[in-house]
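User: Can you predict the 3D structure for this chain?
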Amino acid sequence: MKILYLTNIPSPYRVAYFNELGKYCELTVLFETSYSTERDKSWKNYQFDHFTGIIMKGVRTSRDTAFCPFVVKYLKKEIYDCIILTVLSSPTGLLAAAWLRRFQIPYCYEGDGGIAKNTRGLKASLKRFIISYADICFSTTNDFDRYCLTYGALKEKIRRYPFTSIYEKDILPQIVRKDEKCVIKEHLEIEEERIILSVGRVIPLKGYDVLLKAFGGIKSNWGLYIIGGEVNEELRDIIIKKGIEHVHFVKFKQAEELKQYYMAADIFVLSTRSDTWGLVINEAMACGLPVITTYSCGAGTEMVRQGENGFLYEAEDVESLGRHMEELMESEEIRRRMGEKSLAIVRNYTIEKMAEVHLAILGND
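Assistant: Here is the predicted structure, written as structure tokens:
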């Protein structure tokens, strides 16, 4: 099978998926640009081992998209068994869709999440232009199903796939024992007995102000570790005004060191105000952690079973977040049970499964 993908940048998790998919088909991937201006420099370290990756020449139009007019030279009839577009908001994606429609070349659309907001206006029309013509819409969540339907997809053309950044080998065989956590904490120089972990860029969208207020309302000596950047002025003011202790902001960590923090932690919290997916949920669950996140997180609504492997709450609800954290941190038995459930769920969300599902869908349609 010959497959062509059009996407924006060679992000680490996408390259991992393409390398896996490329083991079982003849895969070519067109990238609009080589990197995102807002991501860590490690994102530039990629290898195209099992597929042909082409960084197209173009003019950057945003932090991670570019206009590449010569994309059309790759969009030829009967060369590929399947062409998959993953970008809606870039001029390259729009040009590709227009070209494919003009010459009646079938294509699929794939996204990793989204919620339909505006149904009128130019942006909505452009989304409808791409999605309504797609032979297959690859979706990750119920919300994204509705997104595709809103912009013209037919229900029978929507196919669900597991979105992830982890391999089978990344999933722990069992939850980390208490004595093992103590050894890891000593290595990381963590002094607190129990740890709440959050991972993500320090930006308002991640809701760290809500997390700090919830954590500050809990009377304990637990530690809160936020990995992804330095504390900003707004969050520092909350910490000072509320007299919050045992809060640690840790700079960005590479995957192997970050995994040590997951293994040292007792629970994971993603207090996001909006995440189309949120791959850190996959990573936390792969390390056997209970997860607390918001209803505005795609991975949360898809992978967190309320009361089974974690909790979901409304994004601005400080009281609910605090209550859920306290319930988990006070019961080792609940944490163990929920951690085991996380491991069971996440085994269906691996890069191997992601490639397998795509191939099965394309082979049957």
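The domain at 2-164+350-364 is CATH 3.40.50.2000 (Rossmann fold). The chain has two domains: 2-164+350-364, 168-346.
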